[in-house]
Design a protein that fits this description.
The structure holds two protein chains of two kinds.
Chain A lengths: L3 E4 L2 E4 L5 E7 L6 E7 L6 E7 L5 E2 L8 E7 L2 E6 L8 E8 L9 E3 L3 E5 L1
Parallel strand pairs in A: 2-11
Antiparallel strand pairs in A: 1-3, 3-8, 4-5, 4-9, 5-6, 7-8, 9-10, 9-11
Chain B lengths: L3 E2 L5 E4 L4 E7 L6 E7 L6 E6 L3 E5 L2 E6 L4 E6 L8 E8 L6 E3 L3 E6 L1
Parallel strand pairs in B: 2-11
Antiparallel strand pairs in B: 1-3, 3-8, 4-5, 4-9, 6-7, 7-8, 9-10, 9-11
Classes of the chains: A mainly beta, B mainly beta.
Chain lengths: ~120, ~110
C-alpha cells in the first residue's frame, strides 16, 4: 500500500518552456501532497504544500507564479515549472499523506522527476 | 542553528557491524520523527517512524528517541553492503504538518 507515482521520471526541455509534473497516490486518497526539490548533494527542500481543492501554500523564497501547483482531486497533484531556466534543473519529488492510515503524518514519496533545462 | 542536524559522514562500517546514526533537532515541541533511506539518484524511502521516548524496533532497525535531549537515532544491526545509502532524519515541528529534513548521513558498509 501507500504507493505514490510521478510522471515523467525524466524530462529535458529548452529554456523558456514549461514542464508539468504529475504526482498520483495510487492506492489511497491524499488530501495533502507536498512538493520538494533536491539539488545534488543537498537535502530535500520543501517547495509547497498542496491541499485538495484549495490553493497551495508555498515556502518562503519559492515563486508561486513560477511553480504552479494544482491539486484537483484526492489522488492527483501537478507541478508546472513555467518558463524554465537552467537553474531550475533539479530533482523534483512529491509526497503524499494517507489520512486514513494509522500514522496520518507519515509521508510517502514518489520516485521523483529529474528535470534538465538546456 | 539548523532545525535538524546530522553528521554528513561518511560513516564507514564493516559488514555485519552495527551502524549508529544520530540526529538532533531544535524544536522542543516536536512530536513526530522519521528516518528515511535515500539511495543515490532515488527518492527517499521510509524506514521508521517514532513518536514516544524510548526504542522502537523493526527487523534490523531500531529507532531511539530522547525528547529531553532532543535526540533521535537509528541503529542498523548486521549491516549489509546494500544498506549503503544516505539516511535522512526528518521531524514534524510544533503546529506544523510539514517535514523538516536533516542534510543526511552517508553510510558506507564495506564487504
Amino acid at each position: 500500500g501507500a504507493v505514490v507515482s510521478q510522471h515523467p521520471s525524466r524530462v529535458i526541455c529548452k529554456s523558456g518552456t514549461s514542464v508539468k509534473i504529475e504526482c498520483r497516490s495510487l492506492d489511497f486518497q491524499a488530501t495533502t501532497m507536498f512538493w520538494y526539490r533536491q539539488f545534488p548533494k543537498q537535502s530535500l527542500m520543501l517547495m509547497a504544500t498542496s491541499n485538495e481543492g484549495s490553493k497551495a501554500t508555498y515556502e518562503q523564497g519559492v515563486e508561486k507564479d513560477k511553480f504552479l501547483i494544482n491539486h484537483a482531486s484526492l489522488t492527483l497533484s501537478t507541478l508546472t515549472v513555467t518558463s524554465a531556466h537552467p537553474e531550475d534543473s533539479s530533482f523534483y519529488i512529491c509526497s503524499a499523506r494517507d489520512v486514513l492510515a494509522e500514522s496520518t503524518e507519515t509521508q510517502y514519496f514518489g520516485p521523483g522527476t529529474r528535470l534538465l533545462v538546456l | 542553528q539548523k532545525e535538524v542536524e546530522q553528521n554528513s559522514g561518511p560513516l564507514s562500517v564493516p559488514e555485519g557491524a552495527i551502524a549508529s546514526l544520530n540526529c538532533t533537532y531544535s524544536d522542543r515541541g516536536s512530536q513526530s520523527f522519521f528516518w528515511y533511506r535515500q539511495y543515490s539518484g532515488k527518492s527517499p524511502e521510509l524506514i521508521m517512524s517514532i513518536y514516544s521516548n524510548g526504542d522502537k524496533e523493526d527487523g534490523r532497525f531500531t529507532a531511539q528517541l530522547n525528547k529531553a535531549s532532543q535526540y533521535v537515532s537509528l541503529l542498523i544491526r548486521d549491516s549489509q553492503p546494500s544498506d549503503s545509502a544516505t539516511y535522512l532524519c526528518a521531524v514534524i515541528g510544533t503546529g506544523f504538518q510539514k517535514l523538516v529534513f536533516g542534510t543526511g548521513t552517508r553510510l558506507l558498509v564495506s564487504p
